[in-house]
């Protein structure tokens, strides 16, 4: 029964939001409506909804690993570690499933009336990610296709498991775009955008994990560099990157701003490790 409701809710949430936005904002074009809907029904955003409304407390299962992942995500949200759309942390899919199953149940109780469903479910979803916020942010998926076309390269997009894919595809595009901008047009490289790739929370000892990862696969070790130094000398902040260069491709990620060089490098390594893992390496 739970899976049936989740399937129904998955479909009807997108329809309800699209219908509401279409009627409320007649001047929005197709791209703007798609962007708004993708952001608000993404796996990550629905997971935030589950945490904000404490729906995660009603999960019943016997998987210890899942408990740990849910707890980690809940702590991050409660500590207000929310980030912009397109850079969100990887969320356990079960949290989004809860919201979708609730939507399915409400839709059924409303006699399958879309308008009545929206009156109830919009309160659960608020505050929603608004279009003016989304449009201020870069759109790396579009940028990567434009950059590849300019350089004469091909973007190979691989589909993954059945789940919301828009946010994680955005992160993969950002990684690929950073990679592409560091290459000369004569370089032969295959850029893979795996839509199951996503950003995780920072990993303790990530540099060591990357080193061990490369050793096991007999890859060249990752090279680190400081991309930016910010702020005055007495309060310097750093943004680091890590690159792993293979014969046929280059993996490149840039970390978040940190007060120490080692911490900045660990941030970059955390994103690299998470990305490689989600890409199936």
Mean pLDDT: 76
Total number of strands:
5
The number of helices is: 11
Strand order of the largest sheet: 3-4-5
| Tally of distinct domains | 2
Whole-angstrom Rg: 20 Å
Give a quick set of tags describing it.
single chain, 281 residues, mainly alpha, Ribonuclease iii, N-terminal Endonuclease Domain, Chain A, Double Stranded RNA Binding Domain, three-stranded antiparallel sheet, two-stranded parallel sheet, 11 helices
Structural summary, described in words:
The structure is a single chain. The protein has 281 residues and is mainly alpha-helical. It folds into 2 domains: 2-135, Ribonuclease III domain (Ribonuclease iii, N-terminal Endonuclease Domain, Chain A); 140-278, Double Stranded RNA Binding Domain (2-Layer Sandwich), CATH 3.30.160.20. It contains 11 helices and 5 strands. Strands 3-4-5 form a 3-stranded antiparallel sheet. A two-stranded parallel ribbon has the order 1-2. Strand 1 (155-158), helix 9 (166-181) and strand 2 (191-194) form a beta-alpha-beta unit. The chain is elongated, with a radius of gyration of 20 Å. The protein starts with a helix and ends with a helix. The model is unreliable at 81-88, 159-163 and 183-200 (pLDDT under 50).
Please sum up the structure shown:
With 281 residues, the protein is mainly α.
Layout of strands and helices, then pairs:
Layout: H1 2-24, H2 30-40, H3 43-52, H4 64-78, H5 93-109, H6 114-125, H7 131-135, H8 140-151, E1 155-158, H9 166-181, E2 191-194, H10 206-216, E3 223-230, E4 237-245, E5 250-254, H11 261-278
Helix pairs in contact: 1-2, 1-5, 1-6, 3-5, 8-9, 10-11
């Amino acid at each position: 029964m739970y899976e049936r409701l989740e399937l129904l809710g998955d479909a009807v949430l997108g329809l309800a939001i699209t219908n509401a936005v279409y009627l409320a904002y007649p001047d929005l074009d197709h791209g703007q409506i798609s962007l708004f809907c993708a952001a608000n029904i993404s796996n990550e955003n629905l997971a935030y909804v589950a945490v904000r409304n404490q729906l995660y407390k009603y999960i019943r299962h016997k998987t210890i690993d899942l408990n740990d992942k849910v707890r980690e995500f809940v702590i991050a949200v409660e500590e207000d570690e929310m980030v912009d759309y397109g850079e969100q942390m990887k969320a356990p899919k079960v949290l989004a499933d809860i919201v979708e199953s609730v939507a399915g149940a409400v839709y059924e109780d409303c006699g399958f009336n879309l308008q009545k469903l929206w009156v109830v479910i919009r309160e659960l979803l608020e505050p929603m990610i608004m279009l003016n916020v989304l449009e201020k942010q870069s759109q790396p998926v579009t940028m990567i296709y434009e950059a590849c076309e300019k350089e004469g390269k091909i973007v190979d997009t691989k589909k993954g498991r059945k789940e919301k894919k828009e946010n994680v595809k955005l992160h993969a595009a950002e990684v690929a775009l950073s990679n592409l901008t560091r290459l000369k047009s004569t370089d032969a490289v295959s850029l893979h955008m795996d839509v199951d790739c996503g950003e995780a929370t920072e990993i303790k000892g990530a540099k060591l994990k990357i080193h061990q990862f490369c050793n096991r696969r007999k890859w060249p070790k990752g090279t680190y560099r400081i991309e930016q130094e910010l702020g005055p000398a007495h309060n310097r902040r750093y943004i680091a990157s890590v690159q792993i260069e293979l014969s046929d491709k280059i993996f490149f990620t840039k970390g978040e701003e940190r007060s120490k060089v080692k911490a900045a490098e660990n941030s970059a390594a955390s994103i690299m490790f998470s990305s490689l893992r989600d890409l199936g390496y």
